[in-house]
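Q: How would the structure tokens look for this protein?
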Amino acid sequence: MAAIEKTVEALGLERADIELYGRDMAKIRIDALEKLSQRPLGRYICVTAMSPTPAGEGKTTVAIALADALAGLGHNPIVTLRQPSLGPILGIKGGGSGGGLAQVVPRAEMNLGLTGDIAAAETAQNLLAALIDNHLHHGNPLQLNPQEVSWRRALDLEDRALRRTVTGLGGGKNGVPRETGFDITAASEVMAILSLAGSFGDLRERLGKVVVGRSFGGSLVSAEDLQAAGAMAALLRHALKPNLLQTLRGTPALVHGAAFANLGIGNSSVMADRIALRLGDSVITECGFGAELGFEKFANIKCRLAGLEPCCAVVVATVRALKFHSGGRAGTRLTRENPDLLRLGAANLARQISNVTRAGLPAVVAINRFEGDDEAELALAQQLALEGGAVAAEVASPWSRGGNGTEALASAVLRAAQGPNRFRSTYDLCNPLAEKIACIARDFYGASGVRLTSETRRSLDRFQAAGYADLPLCMVKTHLSLSHDPALYGRPEGFVVPVTEARLAAGAGYVLAICGDAQSMPGLPARPAGHRIDLTASGEVVGLE
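A: Here is the predicted structure in token form.
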């Protein structure tokens, strides 16, 4: 692996534009964006997928290999990814830096803390929580109602025991008792703000707009009211700067932001993408989970709020995922040749393709080849993708061959990206909040309707009355299904999405709609991935696969 200064030089940056973190990583300074403003914008290409399965679709691996393939074709690409959260790394998923010959390195650093951005977001989130409780303890001059405090603490681990907690127990010296809880840091509002902020000034302004609860008189109380936003911004001053790493092939990679797509916006940061679009002629960015989650939020939150315009989308699918979404979930059936299962499961892929085309983008399907895949089934998967509305479908081998096995996909993406740009958001901000929820559920999930609890309706009415009617929606639901129910595979129909809670994220600039029993603090599985991670006697981290 070449020293990161080589990557800096290749991008046309100067030493003064970066802050080194050892030999292999650097942060790009925010003022570099102003210096780059005269450079032309590169192509903006997002990578999304059909609905996830336990077999894995390899979206990150495809995104990295696609960037490497473009480099092999003589282009100057950059891949932008979210930083992996420790929660899933130590929980069910394992490493989030790609795999095989398509990885971002150094792998251990990328997966286990990187440059401290997530820790900074966690500290800022918890600082505000501490200042809230301190305010209540010292006379509560803002008359903040302890029962109406909505701000929660954060932890970058999966810990179901912290979903609901009571603080302030043990008498007056320990504060005012109240019920609260923890979110995983990747689902926190501070992480969303960090991902969406476009400058230091924007970061500071967003933090000041954060609403923490309501007073006894019914007025909203903000972080600015609590005089907390300044210190929070100071804690995040370095975290706002994107992290520069590289792939195994030496392609530049900006790793920044960590929001989950099922619980948050699920995309790399606005700051990273804006810088990348001035540094490279193509930017490959990954949207989390299936297209009804990460891509929907990419189109309706990230690109809308930041003024970004993509030109093409890649939808990742696998033969095993297609079979899984036929209802055939047994492992032996997924690896056994069965074209009928592919045809049944193609309905899920077709829905996700239509979710992309609904936003005006051409969809190129990447059939990610897994070891043991049957050639006839791979060809059938390509055919089904084209029948489902893709402008092209190519088999790629990113794991085993890296960029060399992804060049056909790269060529198809370049052809698709040359067409006229018809990108658009998929609902109007002027619509009522409840109508926006129904629009997403109907158009992206295929639901027949939504069911709002009485408390959800009251919350939405309060948000609208307080001046937040024009905010976009950030849906919180399972990533395992197009619906709210993780047991509904394939392309379910006739279901109604229950919306059980609405939360205001005024600093991030959206309203959260929580569907079904989705939890903002995940729990560990019976066999956590952390069991297999270890440190060797030579200091090497193992078990991140």
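The chain has three domains: 4-116+239-417, 117-233, 433-515.

The first strand starts at residue 18 and ends at 21.

Upvote if useful.
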